[in-house]
């Protein structure tokens, strides 16, 4: 039984706000979403911050990288202007700030551990340790009130497993790996997170028959959402929070 919401706002507010910012979380809320996915990476000084790309140039103007920047420097950078003038000055938030915001607003979180290359284990460990501290008041069986980790990086999830075995893990695979069953077992993961573009009804059945949750990214039309749900998919994230209702 899937204990989490079915429809999740991707990167906070999908394509309606600057991804992975507090403004994005607020945008998701404004559209009625109380479930978000976001990406977490480590700064130079080992502070988890919300960011998708390891290198600047897209959401942060100029050259540079997250792993070479202090958290205090990142928090001074503009992560909103690339999206529109309205969001100019929107800072890069820390993971801790976003968890506190989400918990204050009863927003459930899918925390994607997104390490910069070479920082897989450190990122998994630090995010897991911080999550344990930030959710110390939530019982380990109260899954609906704990976040769900996910990552494309096996080593990051293994480190998270060692540091916080009670925070559930989903293994992200763009296309399903041939040895997915063995990797899921080693991770003690509860869910497969996969690209809906490559999912087939047969593969969905195999995953469900194996007893795992099944989460798809990133589903942006109601028609496609209905189709994959009919295959047994438990949940999906979407960029189009304006087209797909939270209670879809
Ligand atoms: O977690 C699902 C999805 O966010 C994975 O891809 O690149 O958008 O982080 P990406
Ligand atoms: Mg992501």
TrEMBL record:
Keyword Oxidoreductase annotated: no
Any one Gene Ontology molecular-function term assigned to this protein's record: glycerophosphodiester phosphodiesterase activity
Lineage summary: Bacteria, Pseudomonadati, Pseudomonadota, Betaproteobacteria, Burkholderiales
Superkingdom, natural source: Bacteria
CDD domains, sorted: GDPD_EcUgpQ_like
Cross-referenced InterPro entries: GP_PDE_dom, PLC-like_Pdiesterase_TIM-brl
BP-aspect Gene Ontology terms: lipid metabolic process
Pfam families noted in UniProt: GDPD (PF03009)
PANTHER family registered for this protein in UniProt: GLYCEROPHOSPHODIESTER PHOSPHODIESTERASE, CYTOPLASMIC (PTHR46211:SF1), GLYCEROPHOSPHORYL DIESTER PHOSPHODIESTERASE (PTHR46211)
EC number(s) from the headed UniProt entry: 3.1.4.46
Residue ranges of the TM segments: none
First-level EC class: hydrolase
Entry keyword Ligase: no
Protein name: Glycerophosphodiester phosphodiesterase
Keywords from the UniProt entry: Hydrolase
